[in-house]
Q: What sequence folds into this?
C-alpha cells in the first residue's frame, strides 16, 4: 500500500505492508517496524520499537487532523496512483472560497456581489453560541458570488462567498 | 426534619450544571425533573433525568427563560422545589417570586434578597451602610452622557462602565480617555438592554490589573451565615472566567477572615439565604473592594467543595427544605488546593470563536485528584444556541504544585474530537512560569495570548503521525466524522475511473 502523506507542508512517501498487527513501513527509503492496534475507532495504539504512542484521528469539515499525544498535525493522505492527488497547486491566485469556520447563522452580509474587498475585510457575520463572528476575506479582490443570505443557517465548511 | 425534604426537584437549566444538580438530587434520593428546548432533546441532562418535559424553541426566551412554561412543568410534574442552576433564571427575582406565589420552593435566596443584590447599584447603597469597602464611583446608574462625563472626570480615567443588571462581562466597557466615553456608554447601554432588558449603566474607577477574588458564603433560613473560603478567579478573557482556584495564592488566614467577615456582613445586610458569592477586586497592595454579590451557585463552586469537603448543592437543597446549617464557622477548614479549567467549545486557532458541532471522539481523564463535571458525550452535537461551556475539569492536590501537576496530566488524557476546544489553552497556562509563580491578575491571559509561542516541531512525532496516517488509511474509512471531503487514499483511488487509474499507474512506471 503506497501513500503520499503531507504533514505541515512536508511530503513523505510511505509504503506499508501488513501481517496481522505488525506493519512494515518504508518511509522515505528507511524501514520502520510498527506494532499497531486500533484500540477503538479513530484511536491507534502504536509501538515503534518499544516506544508507545496513542494517535487520535479527527475530521472537521474537510480537514484531517492526527494527534500524537497532545500535538496536532494537519494531514493529507493521497494515493499516488490516484489522479486527484496530483493536481494540487498553491491557490493564492484565482477565485478563493470563503467558508464558515463553524456552524451558525448568517446574521449580516457586509458586502454585495461586485464589491471590491481588501484582504482581511469583513465579508459576513456568523452568529453561534451567543457570539457574533466576522468572517474576513483572505485576499484582496472582487466579490464574485455570495452563496448565502441573511438569517441562513450554515455548517462548518459551507461556502459563504467567492472572492476573485 | 426528614419528612420536610423535597420528593421531586425541577431543574430549570441545561448542560453540565443541570447534570451536576441532577446528581445531587439522586444522591439525596430525590427525583429529578428536567426541561429541555427543541435542540436539547439529546442533551445529557435529559438522558439522566427521571422526568423530562419539552418547553419550546431553542431561543432561551422561548424555553429556559420562560417562567410560565417552567412553572407549568412544575405543576404538571408535581415538583416541590426548583433549582435554577446558574445563568438563565437563576438571578431573576421575578422568577423567585413567581415560584413562591405558585407554592414551589425556589432553591436560592428570596426575591427580596435578590432584588437588593441583583441590581449592582442598589446593592451598593445597602452595603455602604454596612461599612463594606467600595471602589470609587457612582452608586446609581448615570442618567445622561453629561453626568457620565462629570463623574468620570471626578474619579479619574481609566473608568469602567457596567450594566446595573449585568454579569458575565456583558454590558461592560473599559474607557481609557474622555474621547471614548460617549461611544462606550452607548455600546454598554445597548448591550445591557439586549442582554438584560435594562439599559442602566454605572461608572466605577477602573483598578488596573487587579485580582478578582470571591468569597463563598452560605446562609440558612434560621439566621446562620458562614463563609467557606475564597476563590481566585483572576484568569479571564473578555471578562469571562477561564480558570479558577482555591484557595487564592495571595490570601493568608488573616486576609481570609477579614474578607469572609465582610462577605457575611454583605449577606446579612440583605437578609440573604442559601448559597451566594461576594466578589472582590484586590489591588496590588492587597486592598479589597466589594464588587458585587452573585445570588446563585457559581460555575466554579467545585473548587470550594474540594478544599472544604462540603457539597454545596446538597447544602442548598437542605437549606431550602428548612434545615439548619449543620456546622458553624469554626468547623470550616481548608485543606489542599483545587483548580478548575472551563472547557469551552471554541477554537484557539481562530481567536476563540465558538465551535459547535458533533463530538466524534471523547476520551475523558480520571485518576487521583481529578473531578470532571461534564454535559457532553461522544456522538452528541453541541448546539449553536447556548453558551459554549462543555465541561469543567477540576484538579485537587495537597498543595498548588500538585494540583497543577495532576491537572496537567489529566489535560494530556482529555481529548474531544470533531469540535474545537480550548484544552490546549490550559496546557499553555499551566506551564507558564508566571502562572506557576502565582503572579496573577485579570490582565494575565490577554498578555499571555499576545505572546506567540514557538511550538518546537518534534520530528519523531511527525514521523509517528505519517505512519499513523498511512495505517488509518489502510484500515479504511473512519466510522465517525463527516462523510464529505474524504481524503483517505483508498476512497480517492476507488473514485478514480479505470482509465485514469491506468494512466496514472503507467506514469508511475515511467517515472
A:
Amino acid at each position: 500500500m503506497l501513500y503520499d502523506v503531507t504533514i505541515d507542508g512536508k511530503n513523505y512517501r510511505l509504503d506499508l505492508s501488513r501481517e496481522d498487527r505488525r506493519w512494515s513501513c518504508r518511509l522515505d527509503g528507511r524501514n520502520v517496524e510498527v506494532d499497531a492496534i486500533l484500540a477503538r475507532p479513530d484511536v491507534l495504539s502504536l509501538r515503534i520499537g518499544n516506544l508507545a504512542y496513542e494517535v487520535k484521528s479527527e475530521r472537521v469539515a474537510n480537514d484531517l487532523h492526527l494527534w500524537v499525544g497532545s500535538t496536532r498535525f494537519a494531514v493529507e493522505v493521497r494515493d499516488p496512483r490516484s489522479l486527484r492527488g496530483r493536481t494540487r497547486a498553491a491557490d493564492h491566485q484565482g477565485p478563493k472560497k470563503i467558508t464558515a469556520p463553524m456552524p451558525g447563522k448568517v446574521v449580516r452580509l457586509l458586502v454585495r456581489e461586485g464589491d471590491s474587498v481588501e484582504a482581511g475585510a469583513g465579508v459576513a457575520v456568523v452568529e453561534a453560541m451567543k457570539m457574533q463572528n466576522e468572517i474576513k476575506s483572505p485576499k484582496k479582490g472582487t466579490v464574485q458570488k455570495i452563496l448565502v443570505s441573511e438569517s441562513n443557517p450554515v455548517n462548518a465548511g459551507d461556502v459563504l462567498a467567492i472572492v476573485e | 426534619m426528614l419528612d420536610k425534604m423535597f420528593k421531586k426537584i425541577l431543574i430549570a437549566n441545561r448542560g453540565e450544571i443541570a447534570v451536576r444538580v441532577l446528581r445531587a438530587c439522586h444522591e439525596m434520593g430525590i427525583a429529578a425533573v428536567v426541561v429541555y428546548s427543541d435542540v436539547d432533546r439529546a442533551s445529557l441532562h435529559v438522558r439522566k433525568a427521571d422526568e423530562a418535559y419539552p418547553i419550546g424553541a431553542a431561543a432561551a426566551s422561548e424555553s429556559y427563560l420562560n417562567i410560565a412554561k417552567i412553572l407549568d412543568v412544575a405543576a404538571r410534574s408535581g415538583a416541590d422545589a426548583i433549582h435554577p442552576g446558574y445563568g438563565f433564571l437563576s438571578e431573576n427575582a421575578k422568577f423567585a417570586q413567581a415560584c413562591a406565589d405558585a407554592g414551589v420552593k425556589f432553591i436560592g435566596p428570596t426575591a427580596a434578597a435578590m432584588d437588593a443584590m441583583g441590581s449592582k447599584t442598589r446593592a451598593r447603597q445597602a452595603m455602604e451602610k454596612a461599612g463594606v469597602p467600595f471602589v470609587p464611583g457612582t452608586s446609581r446608574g448615570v442618567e445622561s452622557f453629561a453626568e457620565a462625563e462629570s463623574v468620570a472626570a471626578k474619579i479619574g480615567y481609566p473608568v469602567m462602565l457596567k450594566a446595573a443588571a449585568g454579569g458575565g462581562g456583558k454590558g461592560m466597557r473599559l474607557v481609557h480617555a474622555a474621547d471614548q466615553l460617549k461611544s462606550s456608554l452607548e455600546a454598554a447601554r445597548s448591550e445591557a438592554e439586549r442582554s438584560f432588558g435594562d439599559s442602566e449603566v454605572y461608572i466605577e474607577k477602573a483598578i488596573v490589573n487587579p485580582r478578582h477574588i470571591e468569597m463563598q458564603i452560605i446562609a440558612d433560613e434560621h439566621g446562620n451565615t458562614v463563609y467557606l473560603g475564597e476563590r481566585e478567579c483572576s484568569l479571564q478573557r473578555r471578562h469571562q472566567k477561564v480558570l479558577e482556584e482555591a484557595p487564592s495564592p495571595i490570601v493568608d488566614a488573616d486576609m481570609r477572615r477579614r474578607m469572609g467577615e465582610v462577605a457575611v456582613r454583605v449577606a446579612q445586610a440583605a437578609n440573604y439565604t442559601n448559597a451566594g458569592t461576594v466578589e472582590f477586586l484586590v489591588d496590588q497592595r492587597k486592598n479589597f473592594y466589594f464588587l458585587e454579590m452573585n445570588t446563585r451557585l457559581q460555575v466554579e463552586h467545585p473548587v470550594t467543595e474540594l478544599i472544604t469537603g462540603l457539597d454545596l448543592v446538597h447544602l442548598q437543597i437542605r437549606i431550602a427544605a428548612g434545615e439548619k446549617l449543620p456546622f458553624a464557622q469554626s468547623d470550616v477548614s481548608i485543606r489542599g488546593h483545587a483548580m478548575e479549567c472551563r472547557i469551552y467549545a471554541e477554537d484557539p486557532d481562530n481567536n476563540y470563536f465558538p465551535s459547535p458541532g458533533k463530538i466524534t471522539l471523547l476520551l475523558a481523564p480520571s485518576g487521583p485528584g481529578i473531578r470532571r463535571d461534564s454535559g457532553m458525550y461522544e456522538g452528541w452535537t453541541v448546539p449553536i444556541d447556548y453558551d459554549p461551556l462543555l465541561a469543567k475539569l477540576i484538579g485537587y492536590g495537597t498543595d498548588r504544585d500538585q494540583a497543577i501537576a495532576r491537572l496537567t496530566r489529566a489535560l494530556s488524557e482529555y481529548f474531544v474530537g470533531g469540535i474545537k476546544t480550548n484544552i490546549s489553552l490550559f496546557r499553555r497556562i499551566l506551564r507558564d512560569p508566571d502562572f506557576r509563580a502565582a503572579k496573577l491578575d485579570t490582565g494575565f491571559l490577554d498578555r499571555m495570548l499576545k505572546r506567540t509561542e514557538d511550538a518546537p516541531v518534534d520530528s519523531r512525532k511527525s514521523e509517528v503521525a505519517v505512519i499513523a496516517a498511512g495505517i488509518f488509511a489502510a484500515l479504511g474509512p473512519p466510522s465517525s466524522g463527516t462523510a464529505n471531503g474524504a481524503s483517505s487514499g483508498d476512497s480517492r483511488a476507488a473514485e478514480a475511473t479505470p482509465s485514469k487509474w491506468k494512466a496514472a499507474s503507467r506514469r508511475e512506471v515511467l517515472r
Observations:
- DSSP finds 18 helices and 22 strands in chain B.
